[in-house]
Amino acid sequence: MAPHKIVLRFTPTTSDQPIIYHLVKDYDLVVNIVKAKINPHLEGTMVLDLVGERYEEGIAYLRSQGITVHPLTQEVVRNHDRCTNCGACTGHCPAAALYMERPSMEVQFNGDRCVLCLQCVKVCPVRAMEVRI
Ligand code: SF4
Ligand code: SF4
């Protein structure tokens, strides 16, 4: 059985729940946390590999807890031709995937750290951060 790769998005009221414990104990799922950026009482994002016979029940449980669940079918990329290195995105990236390099003051993007929260897509004034499906 191939694992399902999914993205979970948490609100401030859902970010401190022991969901991994429940997925493993109550639904017999095997969970691999690929990436996560969650601060208690803040919004957060987690990328998981999830496998098990009761996968659909586990997903229903997550949604019943107010957690948004999407299949991981997209990635965020930077359009270098558009980016002006303004730095606006760096203060919004919760995973430090976007950061200002010094002393060049060029904005760098480390896609391996990205947790697909899409904050940079919303705040970039020139739409240099793009979603690819
Ligand atoms: S989607 Fe953008 S803001 Fe969110 S983690 Fe990835 S690079 Fe950072
Ligand atoms: S906000 Fe957009 S233009 Fe500014 S540094 Fe980030 S990607 Fe580049």
UniProtKB/TrEMBL annotation:
Keyword Transmembrane among record annotations: no
Q: Which cofactor does it need?
A: [4Fe-4S] cluster
The residue ranges of the 4Fe-4S ferredoxin-type domain are 74-103, 105-133
The record's listing under InterPro entries reads: 4Fe4S_Fe-S-bd, 4Fe4S_Fe_S_CS, ACT-like_dom_sf, NIL_domain, PSI_iron-sulfur_center
Q: Which keywords accompany this UniProt record?
A: 4Fe-4S, Iron, Iron-sulfur, Metal-binding
Query: Which GO terms fall under molecular function for this chain's record?
Result: 4 iron, 4 sulfur cluster binding; metal ion binding
Looking at the record's lineage, which domain of life comes first? Bacteria
The protein's role, per its UniProt record: Ferredoxins are iron-sulfur proteins that transfer electrons in a wide variety of metabolic reactions.
Name the record gives this protein: Ferredoxin
Protein source organism: Desulforamulus ferrireducens
